Amino acid sequence: MTNKRNPIKQWIWWKPLAIFVLFLCVDRLLSIPYLRNRVTDFKSVDLTLAEVEQNSEPKDFDKSRSAKQIWALGTSRTKAFNAFPDPGYTLADPYLNSEDKKKLADWHGKSIAFPGGSFINFYTRFLQLLERGLKPDLVFVEISPGSFNRNSLINIYSKQEGLSIPYALSHLEYFETDTVHRLFVTRTFLSYRYQFSFSKFFDLLKGKEGKAPLLEKAMKDMNIDPKQLNRYNDFNDNISNFKSKNGTYIFEDDINPDPSSAMYAIKYLWMVNELEKTIYNNFEVDYEQLAYLDRMIKLLETHKIPYIFWKPKSHPNLTDVENNPTVTKLYKEIILPKLQSYNVKYLDMQTVDMKCAYYLDAAHVSPRCYTEITKELLNVLK
Questions:
Q1: What's the CA dihedral at 271, 276, 279, 281 to 10 degrees?
Q2: Each residue of 144-159: pLDDT tens digit?
Q3: Looking at residue 235, what is its pLDDT?
Q4: DSSP reduced 3-state for 7
């Protein structure tokens, strides 16, 4: 007697698998940029994170150099260190006295910085450069309050980008278990990685126009030409971006901006509002980031590299947001005690009365101020 398999039972057995395979096929559609931008809440982070994920060859980190090299690790607030200090500009800096210029004359800056990046991002890139045999004379490590908010939208996305599975698997001892786990999950399920949005999906089905980026919309509403908002997005921050053909230095920044101007409304009011919503809202300590602070210190100590941690200066409009009670408590009860346990040198630039009072916007001091910042940090290392 021939045993025949019940087709209904077979379908019940294969149905879950068929649904899962179908889901993965649909899920892969989010690899298409157009769809990803229309039906997800994905917050694109800086494209320079690609150099970390690809472990690409670094530029201008020359081992055979005459000037002493500072590597600055951090977010967009650290980017300008790629141009400053520069021996040529140091001599022309109006905020340094002759003694300061002499002390800084041999120093050259390089940044390992990712706008919106997390500790995981610049820790990983720092590790990659050390593995290539590159080594700085000194390291500045940025500590911005928003980097430690577990619920920061920028932090959520930056933590899952900039690290490849092959690199993580070959360096398991250098990464937290949560980091590796999240890497596998987000690479398997794109709808989780990019935060699929049903409301945006239904808007797409109804033929509604996708929303313009918030900054673009705000500038359009105020009739501001985007070209006027020079945030140095294109500079891989080398000094040539600031030097004119006749040898003078040019900066596009603000000092005592007009509070009634549209540009002030964008750079010093709208930006503070957006940073409060996307980075500082619902503040909860990110212990994974704190773990990488530990790992960073141990890596620096292992390689016997001098270093200093610093907190960037921000415009007064943003200071109240960054110094809210929750963040202040984080610094006093968690961050500072951790640094003190390692006897780490630390400087809060908000406490420094700087001569250079120029800003790019509420979150960033002008690149022209970074030589003076370097001077202050070097003074702490004495």
A1: -160
A2: 888 888 888 778 778 8
A3: 42
A4: helix
Which stretch of DSSP H or E encloses residue 74? strand 68-74
Closest to 379 (Cα-Cα) out of 114, 10, 55, 96? 96
Q: Measure the CA–CA gap between 140 and 314, rounded to whole angstroms.
A: 17
- Residue 85, preceding bond cis, omega within 30 degrees? yes
What is the separation of C-alpha 46 from the centre of its chain, rounded to a whole number of angstroms?
A: 8
Maximum distance among all Cα pairs of the chain, rounded to whole angstroms: 103
CB atoms within 10 A of CB 251: 14
CB-facing half-sphere around the CA of 222: CA atoms within 13 A? 20
Helices marked H in 45-189? 49-53, 87-92, 98-104, 119-131, 153-160, 165-170, 177-188
| Tokens representing residue 206 in the block | 């109804």
DSSP 8-state secondary structure symbol assigned to residue 239: G
**pTM (2 d.p.):** 0.84
| CA dist., res. 148 & res. 318, Å (int) | 17
What the block records as the tokens of 198 is: 């049903």
d(CA 375, CA 306): 15
The amino acid occupying position 105 is A
Residue 294: pLDDT over 50: yes
**Integer Cα distance of 83 and 43 in angstroms:** 27
Backbone angles phi, psi at 69, to 5 degrees: -110, 130
Residue 358 burial by Cβ neighbours in a 10 Å radius (0-12, 13-18, 19+): middle
Alpha-carbon distance values, 80 to 9, 179, 365, 373 (Å): 65, 28, 10, 11
Calculate the alpha carbon distances from 190 to 21, 47, 69, 288 in Å.
14, 18, 40, 22
The pLDDT tens digits for 198-250 are 677 667 666 665 554 544 555 454 444 444 444 444 444 678 888 887 878 88
CA–CA distance, 315 with 305 (Å, rounded to integer): 31
Q: Please, how many CA atoms are within 13 Å of residue 291, restricted to the half-sphere of its CB? A: 12
